[in-house]
Amino acid sequence: MIQKKVCMLGAFAVGKTSLVSRYVRSIFSDKYYTTVGVKIDKKLVSVGEKEVNLILWDLAGEDEYQKVHMSYLRGASGYLLVVDGTRPATLETALRLQKSAAEAVGDIPFVLILNKSDLTDDWEIDGTTVEEIASRGWPVIRGSAKTGEGVEESFSLLVRKILGE
Amino acid sequence: MIELPPPVLEYLLAATFARRSLAYVLADSEGRLTDWGGDLAAYGVMNPEKGQSIGELMVPLEGMLPPGQPMPALLLPLVEMCPGKFADIHLFPAEDGYYVLILDKTPEVVQQQRYQQRGNELSLLREKHAKILSQYLGEEIAESLAQGIFTVKEGGERREVTVLFVDIRAFTPFSEGNAPEVIFGTLNLYLPAMIQPILDEKGLVDKIMGDAVMALFGVIPIEKPSPVHATAAALQMIEAVSTINRARAQESYPTLDIGVGIATGPVALGILGTKARRTFSAIGHHVNLAARLEDTAQPREILIDENTFAKIGPLQHLFARRDAALKGIGEPVTTYSCQVRGWTNPCSPKS
Fold this sequence. Notes:
A: six-stranded mixed sheet; 4 helices; 27% strand
């Protein structure tokens, strides 16, 4: 069976752990629990005729006091870049992390997810910004770990890109 | 390599690896297991077999080998090896393949989790606060009035407010004797205990300066007189810090105390800065007075001026007059003190 390592990258409290939890176990909790180091989950997915065992590395988010260790990306086939759509600063963090990831492991596939789309009143990332990111050729999906919107789609797109489909 | 006498080496090995559940595996360049040892069972590895892929043996090692290109030593810190068990993974080349060393770091993760949780919650709180403030600053006064969030004229105005200063006593010597991660970890533990009561009492966190916080009461509309809210916030702060100290004392961590200064009176309120970055600001004698009172306050002491004392109603019985010489304040000032002794806070609103 094909095994593929995928990392979750983003600032702290953007919802990386919640996205993994929604994708792997179909559950969501509103309570915020910070991730220390790395938590690893697995999920078996089918892409056409192929079965892929995804190994999901949920990395601690970048905060004021700690940077993301790029050594975690060693052996990764792709990554999900997570942004909190209600906190524009997390987009800047994601852009910086993408650059560091590309320097560390090269040009591997990634998908950017604008998480927390359910918080429409607090949403702060406008269409122009999304268009600007998309114009770089980056796949951008708006989603929510809470409602499930865009979650399956983000991971599926990433797996298809990893498999070159 | 330094040559050390065997007893020194033995001591260092014991001190370094005790309770670390050291385990190792040796893999060939294709990532196939050739040798292993140590406490692999601690990480959920029960029956390793020669020739087995190290990715199958331990999920976190999937994809690590072969390296593709010459690989220097690699450290993967704080990786969850199996539920609730975290370890540092060291990967480095040897003559006959690659060694993977695994050292248990679960206790460090448990401790870091506590610090990091509080630190990140505080950062989110700060962001929320800044968002509210910037939303106001970017809008017309009429709109702000309609929202009822802030009621300060952008061009500046003089208004009676209550100014509160709080800081951690003896934090400078503490910071000089400890590593940066300990300093910030400790700060992030204590700062929420100082900030949350301000927000709960509808105060405005004006500045956070290292281990000190300045807050204003009476800017955001409130029901009671601003000195009542400020004094209640100070009492809650001391209570919250006492709770942290009790928990830290049980684990033999150093404890810290805070001192609070409060003054009430007219100050000039206004907006400073450029369009890109504007900050709210309060200037005047009572700002300086509150700062001096905080400077003079002893650990676990709330020191307030006469104006504040006159307007705190039933809370007055917690305070005793204390004549204090305040540096930089010309005229004599009558002050009142609430000194909390021991771990139990007699000023607790609950008591």
